[in-house]
């Protein structure tokens, strides 16, 4: 009974990686809007299975309940906080995301969390490859001209997903593959042109690299040879790829130039915007409501001048709204409408002073089982994304790598795993190219849509990439099974 539960949990966890982290489900979801029978039945039937299996595992597997308890407590608190206000569409999305976090965490912890985390790492690389393919085409998948987005459609979501996926799983990647892993994912983040994510990623990489170098210098043990030549060759190849994209996609070259110029001008533009707001309000004694309205008016035009300074104005407006709001907050719908670009401010506006607890508690889950500096990037990446986005706790595609990262750290802490459940991942990987073909064929057959408008050559390239990834996962499974017969979760198979 226990083995069948583990296998089923690992299968569903693997499908979560493909459906949400790889963004296959959101990518093709517009095609199913008019379908009121077949796809809703599949969708809600799958969720029923997920919730039912989660409850069975919690009822019958006490060790899993014990290890999942921190996640369940945070989810219960967040759900209770949401129910303190009338339920609107934003609240419903958050409740669904909360259920997703609880179920995915339990299923991952109950199955093969370390193998699932490696599976998540491979999906992160695949997502990076799709973004690198996307940037070669003027009319790709992205909804922002000149920025790569891959299957995420939104470039900022794509960058955040890559960032969180790499930060949460890189420590499970074999040493010989870590440099290529980080180089490929880092280049993909660059072509999304998400400046906040790129800066945060560079800072975290420098910090971890400094720690690794210091540990290497102080360690008396023999050091493994650093493969400079291979890493250098890959770095040159990726730089060449970006050059090709700059020449083949003129929108990318224009967007890249504009994006990085805005970094230097952001402080000046923000100061000028604040001066303009102060000048508009100088004729009268402004109330908080007047300041908020004036900031909103200025922010509408500021986005065309400098998106970074515009975000600063929106955060300032959100903080003022929190300060002047009622003690128990204004609800998630009102908070989300303010677009605070900060998860902590979003929940503070929505639920007052108690609202700060929900994102802080979720952030605490990423550091609860950390036992070394090399395991801190998930915490740091989640903090960075929360500080620059208000959608992370509403988006399963961003939550998935964080959840699997938490489950992997949990397994590392307690030295438990279920190697018999690893086989589920290869069958889930096979479903990825099949699902992509079905979705792409449907999109082309239906007619005008953002997916159908993408070049068929790009669709072919993405299909080939997913297929090669699926084959790689199948072969990796065989090798991993052999390793797991001779190694524990803290043995060489996981280093």
What does this protein look like?
This protein is an all-alpha fold. The chain folds into two domains: 2-214 and 229-249 and 359-494, no CATH class; 253-340, no CATH class. 74% of the residues lie in helices and 0% in strands. It contains 20 helices and no strands. It has helices spanning 2-21, 24-28, 38-60, 62-82, 89-110, 113-134, 155-169, 175-192, 195-218, 228-248, 250-281, 288-305, 307-324, 332-337, 343-351, 357-365, 377-388, 396-414, 424-446, 456-484. It is globular. The two termini are 31 Å apart.
Provide the fold topology.
Layout: H1 2-21, H2 24-28, H3 38-60, H4 62-82, H5 89-110, H6 113-134, H7 155-169, H8 175-192, H9 195-218, H10 228-248, H11 250-281, H12 288-305, H13 307-324, H14 332-337, H15 343-351, H16 357-365, H17 377-388, H18 396-414, H19 424-446, H20 456-484
How many separate helices? 20
Most strands sheet: none
Shape: globular
Order of helices and strands: HHHHHHHHHHHHHHHHHHHH
The figure for the number of domains is 2
- The proportion of residues in beta strands is under 5%
Quaternary organization? single chain
Terminal-residue CA separation: 31 Å
Determine the structural class based on helices, strands and strand pairing. Answer: mainly alpha
- Find the count of extended strands (DSSP E, 2+ residues): 0
Key features of this structure:
495 residues; mainly alpha; globular
Short characterization:
With 495 residues, the chain is mainly alpha-helical.
């Amino acid at each position: 009974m226990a083995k069948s539960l583990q296998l089923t949990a690992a299968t569903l966890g693997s499908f979560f990686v493909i459906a949400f982290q790889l963004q296959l489900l959101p990518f093709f979801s517009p095609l199913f809007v008019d379908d009121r029978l077949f796809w809703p039945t599949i969708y809600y039937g799958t969720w029923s299975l997920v919730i039912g299996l989660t409850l069975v595992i919690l009822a019958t597997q006490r060790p899993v309940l014990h290890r999942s308890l921190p996640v369940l407590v945070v989810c219960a608190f967040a759900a209770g906080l949401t129910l303190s206000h009338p339920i609107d569409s934003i609240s419903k999305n958050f409740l669904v995301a909360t259920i997703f976090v609880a179920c995915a965490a339990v299923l991952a912890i109950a199955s093969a969390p370390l193998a699932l985390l490696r599976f998540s790492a491979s999906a992160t690389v695949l997502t990076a490859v799709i973004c690198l393919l996307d940037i070669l085409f003027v009319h790709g998948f992205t909804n922002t001209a000149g920025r790569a987005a891959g299957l995420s459609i939104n470039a900022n979501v794509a960058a955040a997903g890559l960032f969180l996926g790499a930060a949460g799983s890189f420590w499970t990647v074999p040493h010989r593959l870590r440099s290529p892993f980080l180089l490929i994912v880092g280049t993909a983040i660059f072509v999304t042109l998400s400046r906040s994510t790129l800066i945060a990623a560079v800072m975290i990489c420098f910090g971890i690299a400094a720690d690794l170098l210091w540990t290497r210098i102080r360690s008396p043990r023999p050091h493994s040879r650093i493969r400079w030549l291979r890493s250098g060759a890959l770095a040159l190849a990726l730089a060449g790829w970006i050059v090709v994209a700059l020449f083949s996609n003129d929108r990318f070259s224009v967007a890249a130039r504009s994006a990085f110029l805005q970094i230097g001008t952001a402080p000046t533009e923000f100061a000028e915007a604040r001066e303009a707001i102060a000048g508009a309000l100088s004729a009268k004694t402004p109330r908080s409501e007047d300041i908020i309205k004036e900031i909103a008016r200025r922010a509408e035009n500021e986005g065309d001048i400098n998106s970074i300074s515009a975000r600063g104005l929106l955060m300032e407006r959100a903080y003022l709204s929190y300060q002047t709001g009622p003690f128990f907050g204004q609800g998630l719908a009102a908070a989300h409408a303010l677009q605070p670009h900060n998860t902590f401010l979003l929940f503070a506006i929505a639920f007052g002073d108690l609202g700060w607890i929900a994102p802080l508690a979720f952030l605490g889950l990423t550091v609860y089982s950390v036992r070394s500096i090399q395991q801190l990037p998930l915490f740091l990446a989640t903090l960075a994304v929360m500080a620059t986005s208000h959608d992370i706790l509403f988006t399963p595609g961003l939550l998935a790598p964080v959840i699997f990262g938490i489950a992997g750290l949990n397994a590392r802490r307690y030295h438990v795993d279920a190697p018999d459940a690893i086989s589920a991942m290869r069958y889930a990987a096979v479903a990825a190219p099949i699902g992509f073909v079905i979705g792409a064929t449907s999109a082309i057959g239906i007619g005008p849509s953002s997916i159908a408008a993408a070049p068929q050559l790009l669709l072919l390239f993405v299909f080939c990439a997913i297929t090669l990834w699926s084959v790689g996962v199948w072969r990796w499974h065989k090798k991993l099974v052999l390793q797991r017969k001779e190694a524990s979760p803290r043995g060489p198979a996981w280093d």
